[in-house]
Amino acid sequence: MANIEDIAPKQISGYKVLITSLNGTTVDISPLVIETSIFESIYSISMHGQLVIADNSAVFSDLPIVGQEKINIQFIRNEVDFDLNFVVSGIEDLASYNDATGAYVITFTSESSLVNAVSTFSKSLSGLGIDIIDRIYSDNFEKLDVKVSGGNSMNVIMPFTKPFAAINMIQQESYDSNKSPLFIFDTVFDDAVQLTSLYAMQNQETSHKISNIINNNVEIDGESSRDMLKHVGEAYHIEMPSAYNVFEQIDDGTFASSIDTIDIATKSIKRDTFNYLDHDVVAGTDYMHRNFKINDKLLTKYTTANVSTNYVNTKSFDSLNNLYGNDSYAKATVGSKLNRIDTIEIYMHMDSVAGVAAGKIVEIDFIRFAPILSDKDSPKDEMTSGKYLVSSLRHHIKLGEYTMALNLVRNNVGIV
What we know:
The chain has 4 domains: about 5-110, Elongation Factor Tu (Ef-tu), domain 3 (Beta Barrel); about 115-185; about 205-245 and about 340-415, Beta Barrel (Elongation Factor Tu (Ef-tu), domain 3); about 245-340, no CATH class. It has 8 helices and 25 strands. It has helices at about 60, 110-115, 130-140, 165-170, 200, 245-250, 275-280, 330-340; strands at about 15-20, 25-30, 35-40, 50-55, 70-75, 80-95, 100-110, 120-130, 145, 155-160, 180-185, 195, 205-210, 235-245, 255-265, 270-275, 285, 295, 295-300, 305-310, 345-350, 360-365, 385-400, 400-410, 410-415. The strands form 6 sheets. Strands 1, 2, 3, 4, 5, 6, 7, 13, 14, 21, 22, 23 and 24 form a 13-stranded mixed sheet that branches. The protein is globular and about 70 Å long. The model has no long low-confidence stretch (mean pLDDT about 90).
C-alpha cells in the first residue's frame, strides 16, 4: 500500500540525487539540491535538465565537477519508481554568497546526446523512412520504440553524418501511412525513445482529465487537509499564451498553396495546387470556417498566396525515390499539419501525475467567463475545453514537492 506521503498532491518520497565522477566516486548531493528540472518535448530526441545547487560541502571542487560526471535521480511518486540516468553537460551561474557557501547550476542531458557527439557514420540506406530512422537509432543507441508504420520510401546516402542529424534529415522528409509528420522523442515515463506520428498521438486515449478547480477552504472548522486527495492531479494555473494566428498560417501556406516541382534531371517544372480541405483531414472541429472569404473569394482559392518549391531527381536511383523525391501533395499535407499543430497553445501548471508526458493527450474543462445565474447555465466553456496534445513538459521538484509545467497544443476547437 502506498504511503500518504507520496500519493498526496505534489508529494514524493525516496528522493535522491547521486553524482559519480570518472574515478568512480559517488556522492549523494540531495541535501544540496534546491531545485530539479527535467525537460521533455516531442521536438527533441533526448531529455535534458538542470540542478540548482547550494554548495557548502566543497563538492564542486573536491569531486570535482568538471562536466564529465554521471547523474542519477531517484524518487517515488504515487507508487511509481523513478530511476533516471543523465550525464553532466555543463556548469552555469556559479557565484559565491559568503565565505562558506556557493551556488551554481548543473546542466545535464541524456547519455544518447553524449554518444551522438562522438559518433559519425557513412552508409547508403533504402526503404521506408520510418524503417530507416529505426535502423539509424538502433544501430547507434538502444532499441527504438516504433509506434507507426507505412509512409514513403526512399534511397539516401549519408556521408560522415552524426546520428541525430541523419535522423532529423529523414524525419523532415518522411511521414506515416496517414501522411502525418513523424516525431521522435524521449520521456521520463517511457522505457525507450519512441518514434510516432502526429496522427497516432492525436488519436490516443486520454491519459488524464483536468478541471480548473479553485481551491477554497470551505471546512467549517478551517481544516485544509481533510480532503486533500481529491485535489490530486488538478491544475493550479491555466493560460492561453496564443491562439488562432490566421495571418501566420496563411503566409505559411497552411490552407492553400502552389507547389512547383522541379526535376533537376530532366530540367522540367510542374505546378500543383494544394487545398487543405481536399488534401487533408482536420481532426475534430476545424476552427477555420469553410465559408471564410477575402474579397468575396474563399480562402482556399488563394493558392498563390504561398508558393513552395519541391526539388526531385528522377534519375538519381534506379528504384524508389531519393531523399527529397516525395510527391508534392504529401509534402504540402504534412506541412499543413505541422503549421496547424499549435493553432491553440495552452500553458498549464499542475500537480504531478504518473503517465502525463510529452506526446500524451490530456483533457481539460475550462470555466466560462460568465457568472452562473441559473441551473441551466453551464460552467464549462465548450469551445476551449476538450483534448490537447502535450507538446513539452517540465518536471519540477522543489522543497520536496513535484509539479509539472505543460505546454499543450491542438488544431481544432470544441463545440461552437
